[in-house]
Write a structure and sequence with these properties.
Blueprint: E1 5-8, E2 13-19, H1 23-28, E3 44-49, E4 55-64, E5 67-73, H2 77-88, E6 94-97, E7 102-108, H3 112-120, E8 130-133, E9 136-140, E10 147-153, H4 154-161, H5 170-180, H6 217-226, E11 231-238, E12 248-253, E13 256-267, E14 270-276, H7 277-281, E15 285-288, E16 295-301
Antiparallel strand pairs: 1-7, 2-5, 2-6, 3-4, 4-5, 7-10, 8-9, 9-10, 11-14, 11-16, 12-13, 12-15, 13-14, 15-16
Length: 302
């Protein structure tokens, strides 16, 4: 079992800084989480929905001086910046990319919690919990096994993590831990395909029903109050690797084949997908919709 080590997450995520007097006001009007809850002790998961309530991109927010930083999948960084610019109007905010000056590192392993506690005096216990030491921020992530994001200026990160070894093949191991923790990931292939509830965002603390309005809010709230969330995030195991994000699924039940949902992403044959609740509960058979169909079994509701 891995004791503790670090993973470079720079290829996975882009860091977009939003700074200025109107930072929280602007974001509060655009996202599903309550940005007023963001603090030095708490990071937030959230999403940018479109006017129909469909999720454009998922993000994690952390506070920085004069604003916050949004971590988004690198493949959707330009789309996120364009979305922010479109809604900026006269807001006193500025957007910048921190990739050249800062680094995002993952810390994982059986001794990860103790290692973080030794260097930050305390290790956050709750998902999203955040602690700062000498300008370097550590955030506890979701999942039974403690994992942390560590973020800061590159020189400070190098100093803080210098004794910690790099994990060989660390990125696939990290991605697998994300699937095991049930953390959805929206990529270009699945952008604007799902409501937040389809992705289990309310259970992850990334969807507030008590904050003010934002794009798609009426659709999202109506879906919740009417109890019409018919598709949910599930974890399954495919019989072969290489299932691409956005791959459609087909389901066979009572001899009839029908739409079975869509794959978010797959790592080492373990995948997350949004599938119809009715077919999950009926124990239907699922396959990828392709010339060489791959069966997906052992579904678990998240």
């Amino acid at each position: 079992m891995l004791s503790v080590g670090r993973v470079d997450l720079s290829t996975e995520y882009a860091a977009i800084a939003v700074t200025g007097d109107d930072t929280i006001k602007l974001l509060q009007n655009l996202v599903t989480c309550d940005m007023q809850a963001l603090s030095t002790e708490r990071s937030l998961l959230g999403s940018f929905p479109n006017a129909k309530g469909r999720v454009i991109v998922l993000f994690r927010a952390m506070t920085i001086e004069h604003g916050c930083v949004l971590f988004v999948p690198r493949a959707l960084a330009e789309r996120t910046l364009a979305h922010l610019q479109f809604f900026k109007f006269r807001a006193k905010v500025a957007f910048s990319n921190l990739d050249d000056s800062h680094a995002l590192i993952g810390v994982m392993g059986a001794e990860a919690r103790g290692w973080i506690a030794a260097r930050f005096e305390v290790a956050p216990e709750e998902p999203g919990g955040s602690v700062d030491a000498a300008g370097v921020r550590a955030v506890r992530l979701h999942g039974a096994a403690p994992r942390y994001w560590v973020f800061g200026a590159k020189a400070q990160i190098d100093t803080a993590l210098q004794p910690l070894p790099w994990i060989e093949a660390g990125l696939p191991m990290w991605q697998l831990a994300e699937v095991e923790a049930g953390i959805p990931k929206v990529l270009p292939e699945t952008s604007e395909a799902f409501l937040p509830q389809n992705l289990n965002l309310e259970a992850l603390g990334a969807l507030s029903f008590s904050k003010g309005c934002y794009p798609g809010q009426e659709v999202i709230a109506r879906t919740q109050h009417l109890g019409t969330v018919k598709r949910r995030l599930m974890r399954g195991r495919s019989e072969a690797a290489g299932v691409e994000p956005g791959t459609p699924l087909r389901a066979v039940h009572d001899g009839a084949e029908q739409d079975g949902g869509k794959v978010l992403y797959e790592v080492e044959r373990l995948l997350l997908a949004v599938i119809p609740l009715e077919l999950f509960e009926a124990d239907a058979c699922f396959y990828t919709e392709s010339s060489s169909r791959i069966a997906v079994k052992n579904w678990e509701r998240l």
